[in-house]
Amino acid sequence: xxxxxxxxxxVVIGGDAAGLSAASKLKREAPHRDAIxxxxxxxxxxxxxxxxxFVKGDVETLTDLLSLSPSDIRDRGxxxxxxxxxxAVSPMEQTVTVRGPDGEKxxxxxxxxxxxxGARALSExxxxxQLDGVFTLHGLDSAANVRAFLSDxxxxxxxxxxxxxxxxxxxxxxxxxxxxxxxxxxxxxGYVGIEMxxxxxxxxxxxxxxxxxxxxxxxxxxxxxxRVEPHLDEQGVTLHLGTxxxxxxxxxxxxDSLACSNGTELAVDAALVGIGIRPNVQLAAETAVTLGDxxxxxxxxxxxxSVDHVYAAGDCAExxxxxxxxxxxxxLGLTANRAGRAIxxxxxxxxxxxxxxxxxAVVKAFDLECGRVGxxxxxxxxxxxxxxxxxxxxxxxxSGYYPGVAETTVRLVADRKSGRLLGGSIVGGDRxxxxxxxxxxxxxxxxxxxxxxxxxxxxxxxxxxxxDPILVAAKVLNGQISS
Amino acid sequence: xxxxxxxxxxVVIGGDAAGLSAASKLKREAPHRDAIxxxxxxxxxxxxxxxxxFVKGDVETLTDLLSLSPSDIRDRGxxxxxxxxxxAVSPMEQTVTVRGPDGEKxxxxxxxxxxxxGARALSExxxxxQLDGVFTLHGLDSAANVRAFLSDxxxxxxxxxxxxxxxxxxxxxxxxxxxxxxxxxxxxxGYVGIEMxxxxxxxxxxxxxxxxxxxxxxxxxxxxxxRVEPHLDEQGVTLHLGTxxxxxxxxxxxxDSLACSNGTELAVDAALVGIGIRPNVQLAAETAVTLGDxxxxxxxxxxxxSVDHVYAAGDCAExxxxxxxxxxxxxLGLTANRAGRAIxxxxxxxxxxxxxxxxxAVVKAFDLECGRVGxxxxxxxxxxxxxxxxxxxxxxxxSGYYPGVAETTVRLVADRKSGRLLGGSIVGGDRxxxxxxxxxxxxxxxxxxxxxxxxxxxxxxxxxxxxDPILVAAKVLNGQISS
Lengths: 483, 483
Description:
- The structure is a homodimer.
- The first copy, chain A, contains 13 helices and 25 strands.
- By secondary structure, the first copy, chain A, is α/β, with parallel strands linked by helices.
């Protein structure tokens, strides 16, 4: 790797978590270096994970979801250029080509470059996804449009959405004027689908959730799904499991029905497609940056790509996994913030690893809290060279006699040979999700299941029984492995 | 150590968590061996930590606090003898001398002996502690008496207390007939004092809490106390910090006032003394079992005392500390259950370590949740050979825009030289206490503060912000250590 030309700026492509964390950190550590952030859209630094709660109404305005305003960002000494799309990178010349808001082309040289282009929501291969009333939930504009659509036209104003003037007014106004939907189809039972089921139910819509596979929340495994599914049903959500939505149709450009591969048809007046996201890697791929097996950008422990002076972070990049050591693609908010910050520090001259991921994820499913971490899929664990064993238990979240005790299901996976904990999942109604942090920490410490069983975890009747559900699960799994 | 005579029974002194866990485990693993449990009182296997919530009324009856009934215990094949006090142990002959319910003396031989004699509440050196209306809260009878005293005499019945007929009826009936107190003094601001402040407030008493040192909850440190104290004040509890209660007085044998060393006097009609507990080691000490520096019984990693075939576990015994490796006395419920279970397994022929403790403790203080773990006192950390550095931060428990976000204060302590995490404390109103498990796990894994900073902890707006308060604290402390 050649030495960085520190008289040239640090250029960042993408103005969200990873990109702005990196630029902010660089400006704190090395204020003399220029940092330029190109963002192709108009929104920057927003809390993507909060959008379902904005749609639901728990979060009042889009402004609440903005971590930093453009002026906050400029106050940090960052040269932020919104509505600037980087369309080419020349690693030989160390320049990027940018299309400005009026279509003009700008050439910008860089000393170091960070690709933080994020990910995009899939709506393919469902035909008719372009119809009005069919949404993905990726970005604040789609959140604005869904909420506008749900609102009473007599009371709706674009201003009520907040957003400091960045909302796409024309589209939001158009949705705000429509008759609100009464029946909505959610396509995809992942995080977004589950969170949006809660959001739409709060607006008293008739909610139908379609999941192609046999269970919702696939990364959480069936132990979690088997509790979430009846709970969704209790909440009035109609589940269509093992059902693939093939097509939306409608007249006058507005959705009015859907059809599934198995022949199911349903009249709907809105649809939310949350069938996954894909890393935005086209620009990087054209720059000869190596992609990993996942399709996201491959990086080393400092976030460096295969091309000199080009880093990648956030939803477009892979990260090394705590358990397997292999690069994996798990696009989540903390990863993006942490990797961006580490790269800012590295670029400032203080090499800092981007860290590892454990694949920690938590989601609220109405009144249930779900968490997962590490390797929970037995086939995947075998592929990684382990001999996985698992156990699932259900135990109280508090002392049995204390009000509010809730059944908490814990599934743990360990390697039979070494006894090492490989992963786990949790579901329950009382402080279940946050308990996954115990397992994430155990994975980082490479604890064996026997060591997990002996953890001195908290006990007080309002918060945990004598044997925390995690300890109960570890005891049972350790018993199975030792026997 | 000489070989165990497995034709002789496993004898256990004390019928609570440690003793019954050991006997139960032995009977599961080696059903042919006899297990005899001598309990000097009439209560067995009860949830001590639940007593404040029984007094408060969150737990309806004493029966709810019983984990196992005497018949459950017998069903496990355990020979349970209530109201049998072991008054002497002869390790040479491997026998115990027991005083039965009618004063008769019984000699019982043992192959292995477990001393699980627990601890007792202190009320010394406060004079007048024997007056009616002055209580400690150690055991179900004191809980029964306090609740009887609080109850409306017109409605009170001994039966309403539950307890399967084991309540000391005469005393409970006497308290139940008294005019309920209006002003109560709690002496001692430890767990019991704080939990009982909540319990008495629920009965609408005027609650005064006296703490000899300058802050409540000393093991949790001032970062926690400084949030708990104003919260107690908001809840209407009058705090008397740095105030030592010296004397209770009263007429006709019933408390009506107290006097403090600093001259403060207060009219009270009830008092709860929670100034600490001491291990019950008299019997062991007479048996030439070695005590540790703490005054509790010293054990090895299998729970063996210095005397052949004599084990100790629970509130009367020390345990090795995860951070220092030294034996420490931290009497808590999980420790007792775990050590008892391990000893049962060892006695059954499968040697199992009793584990280590991290000093994990959590307590509910009205609407605040508090947790602590490891070495948090800097002087103690220095005594253990570390060069401790600490930082305290306050951050949100959830994303700032999500309803219910609560300020969460985290204090972390690490060793400057090695960077190793030594301990921490947490306080806040939203899922704060259970987060201590993350730190307990990090201590077990001997993680450095840098590794804690890089933990892949959970993030979802309803449960945690992008940077969990623990990560924020680790970042700040790591910054201080690295600089």
